[in-house]
Design brief:
Helix content of chain C: 10-25%
CATH class of chain C: Alpha Beta
Helix content of chain B: 25-40%
Strand order of the largest sheet of chain B: 3-6-7-2-8-1-9-10-11
Radius of gyration of chain B: 22 Å
Order of helices and strands of chain C: EEEHEHEH
Number of strands of chain C: 5
CATH architecture of the largest domain in chain B: 3-Layer(aba) Sandwich
Largest interface: A-B, 51 and 53 residues
Structural class of chain C: alpha/beta
Shape of chain C: globular
Number of domains of chain C: 1
Number of helices of chain C: 3
Largest sheet of chain C: 5 strands, mixed
Chains: A alpha/beta (about 280), B alpha/beta (about 290), C alpha/beta (about 120)
CATH class of the largest domain in chain B: Alpha Beta
Oligomer: heterotrimer
Shape of chain B: elongated
Strand order of the largest sheet of chain C: 3-2-1-4-5
CATH superfamily of chain C: Dinitrogenase iron-molybdenum cofactor biosynthesis domain
CATH topology of the largest domain in chain B: Rossmann fold
Largest sheet of chain B: 9 strands, mixed
Distance between the termini of chain C: 22 Å
CATH architecture of chain C: 2-Layer Sandwich
Number of helices of chain B: 11
Strand content of chain C: 15-25%
Order of helices and strands of chain B: EHEHEHEEHEEHEHEHEHEHHH
Chain lengths: ~280, ~290, ~120
């Protein structure tokens, strides 16, 4: 069972819920947590596990084979991403802008742009008790998150043992990297706040998940601030609120030190129980 | 004209609340530009009356014309994004997966494939509640913010500022460290880094500072929720001294932030006596 | 000496555009001929990603020895400009072309790309 934890905007408590849920579930089952917020992965601050392995991830990008090149400039005109430029008698490849479509390489009449592996990022696997934790992080300067997200999901499918639960800490927003991170999930938890900002961004996330045809549930964080509008919205849209988390300065302080909330707070443990029970009911 | 950009690596630091409050104290002098397009929330406080809207186009998607398609499958075999779907012997483009690379178009001998520029959102120019103008944008589902969109919002803001003789453009910047935030910073005279004293906040602060430094933009920092973790606040302050970043303000943890948002107000409107010293101080330092 | 400027207009009173990649115009001043020509770069508005490299390519084709701009080029654009012998002066954003040229002549503009 694969559960993605996502949110329309950053800072709603997505990572907090993902790490707490995963580590709590791991107390009674086999669980895996993936941090696919590959631009700014922060889950590892909370998990603090033992490193088991590091797997570099690569992507392909063209390199210029100068002796073979006829300088026709076809490659530069083919590339839709401005990743290839013809500068006088030079062809310059900007791998950061390359989307690895292979068009320039395969359409070059003389094969002067062979594809070559380039660093994309790194996947680090940790173990913390019964939890396996995979953190994927983009190489600095690499902008395309989607390829690393896909490779991480493949890695989990092919290389890791099956677990009762797989949790995914997704990138925030409704961009294409968020879509890639949620695409293979059986269930998506959207974390929000009961404020107009939270509601506005939740709406966008809900629309996105509906386009993907994903079953969703909402967790409302920081109850006590804001108003009832998020609940009204969920009721009207027929979206189940599967959990609520109270607003408290204690939680803010625990978060700031990257500590786990469930070890300190019993009410929160019950919330997690309830969410897990709800997840198990989905088939 | 001076462009000031407000950024923070991670969400939830209070960046938008502060931007809204700054626009309140500086309403006569600024044009606001919301470049935090992924979570464009500034308008929820500024409640703008729209004056002008424009479609925004960016990026391409392939389209297969079924009338010309010979079902040869060449497009299917070259696509690296699994964006071509085979249905019996017909082929279709999966919209959300297409990257717009155009490879399929090059290999389609029947010339059945077109690349169409996508309408991905809307740009608005509006009159905000406080008397200033607001330029903002909204993106459709799965559409990514881009340097192009940020540049467009800022360009419009610049024009509006000129037309209305405003001296400042205040940009609510994009999150992250990619192309949109670079575009947010590009051309700015000053960057306000909003952070909070958490381990994740600290990591993100370092990343955004490196970006601002690369473009040699003078920086100041607001530490929000400063008393939640005094230790990390002290660490942040050390970094500020080391990197020569001005400490603009230290704001204690305060639930006025969500309270104001809930009422659709900025901090200044909620409790002027309490917030004026903070906000005025920041504005005087950055202007 | 040929000197390139990023600018938001086409004459000596034009303001230096602090942005490199998304500058509206590139102006080229040929000191020997005392001639100022402008290159329209406004189609860069249509470029979603990689505006910097595209503008850098234009400058490459103009072959100036000096570039005067504001914030300076980003990493990709810089990699292209490194392929030519070019002195980059930043910090001129907001000045008029004339002011920026005089500041350059008086060695008042900081030199170099990323690490200067």
């Amino acid at each position: 069972m694969r559960i993605a934890i996502a949110s329309g905007k950053g800072g709603t408590g997505k990572t907090t819920l993902a790490v707490n849920l995963a580590l709590y579930a791991a107390q009674t089952s086999n669980a895996l947590l993936m941090d696919l917020d590959v631009e700014e992965p922060n889950s590892s601050l909370f998990v603090k596990g033992d490193l088991i392995s590091e797997t570099p991830a690569y992507r392909m990008a063209p390199v210029w084979d100068k002796p073979a090149c006829l300088l026709c400039g076809e490659c530069a005109s083919i590339c839709m991403f401005n990743a290839i430029l013809k500068l006088g008698d030079m062809i310059m490849v900007l791998p950061e802008l390359c989307h690895t479509c292979h068009a320039c390489s395969e359409l070059c009449p003389v094969g002067a742009l062979p594809m070559q592996q380039r660093p994309l990022g790194i996947m680090r696997l940790f173990r913390k008790d019964a939890l396996l934790f995979l953190e994927s992080k983009l190489e600095i300067g690499v902008e395309q998150a989607a390829p690393l997200i896909k490779q991480s999901l493949d890695y989990v499918n092919n290389e890791l043992p099956a677990t009762d639960y797989q949790f995914i800490d997704c990138p925030p927003g409704t961009s294409c990297s968020m879509i890639h991170a949620t695409k293979t999930a059986d269930y998506v938890i959207l974390v929000t706040e009961p404020t107009p900002f939270g509601l506005h961004d939740l709406r966008l996330a809900v629309e996105t998940m509906r386009q993907l045809d994903k079953p969703i549930g909402v967790v409302v964080n920081r109850i006590g601030i804001g108003n009832e509008d998020v609940f009204t919205y969920c009721r009207e849209e027929g979206i189940e609120v599967i959990g609520t988390i109270i607003n408290s300065r204690e939680f803010a302080e625990l978060y700031s030190r990257a500590e786990l909330m469930f070890t300190y707070n019993e009410v929160f443990r019950h919330t997690l129980d309830e969410i897990l029970r709800r997840i198990r009911g989905i088939r | 004209m001076k462009e000031i950009v407000v950024i923070s690596g991670k969400g939830g630091t209070g960046k938008t609340s502060l931007s809204a409050s700054l626009s309140y104290v500086a309403a006569n002098e600024v044009v606001m530009a919301d470049c935090d397009v992924d979570a464009a929330d500034l308008h929820l406080i500024l409640k703008p009356e729209n004056q002008y809207s424009e479609d925004f186009y960016s990026g391409f998607k392939a389209e297969i014309n079924p009338e010309y398609c010979q079902s040869c499958g060449a497009c299917f075999s070259v696509c690296r994004f699994e964006a071509i779907l085979r249905k019996d012997d017909r082929y279709e483009v999966k919209y959300l997966d297409c990257e717009g690379c155009g490879y399929c178009q090059h290999v389609c001998l029947a010339e059945a494939i077109n690349l169409r520029e996508q309408k991905v959102g809307l740009c608005h120019i509006a009159d905000a509640r406080f008397g200033c103008k607001l330029v903002h944008a909204e993106l459709g589902i799965g559409a990514d913010n881009s340097g192009k969109l940020v540049a467009k919002v800022k360009r419009d803001a610049n024009r509006v500022a000129k037309e209305n003789s405003k001296d400042y453009i205040l940009v609510d910047g994009s999150p992250g460290i990619g192309c949109p935030v670079i575009s947010s910073l590009s051309g700015a005279a000053y960057a306000v880094l909003v952070t909070e004293p958490s381990l994740s906040g600290l990591e993100d602060l370092k990343r955004v500072w490196e970006l601002s430094a690369r473009f040699r933009i003078a920086c100041g920092c607001v530490i929000n929720k400063a008393d939640v973790n005094p230790e990390i606040t002290a660490m942040i302050k050390d970094i500020l001294v080391e990197k020569d970043i001005e400490l603009l303000s230290e704001i204690p943890y305060d639930e006025d932030f969500p309270r104001a948002i809930t009422k659709g107000l900025c901090l200044m409107e909620l409790d002027q006596a309490k917030w004026e010293p903070y906000i005025k101080q920041i504005w005087e330092k950055i202007r | 000496m040929k000197i390139a400027f990023t600018a938001s207009g086409t004459d000596w009173d034009a303001i230096i555009d602090p942005r490199f990649g998304r500058t509206d115009y590139i102006l080229l001043y040929d000191e020997e001929k005392d001639e100022l020509v402008s290159v329209d770069n406004r189609q860069i508005m249509q470029v979603a990603h990689g505006a910097g490299p595209q503008t850098a390519q234009k400058i490459f084709e103009l072959m100036p020895q000096v570039l005067i701009t504001g914030n300076g080029p980003g990493g990709n654009a810089e990699a292209i400009l490194r392929q030519m012998h070019l002195q980059i002066h930043t910090g001129a954003g907001g000045m008029t072309l004339r002011e920026a040229y005089n500041a350059y002549k008086n060695n008042q503009l900081p030199m170099g790309g990323k690490n200067a």
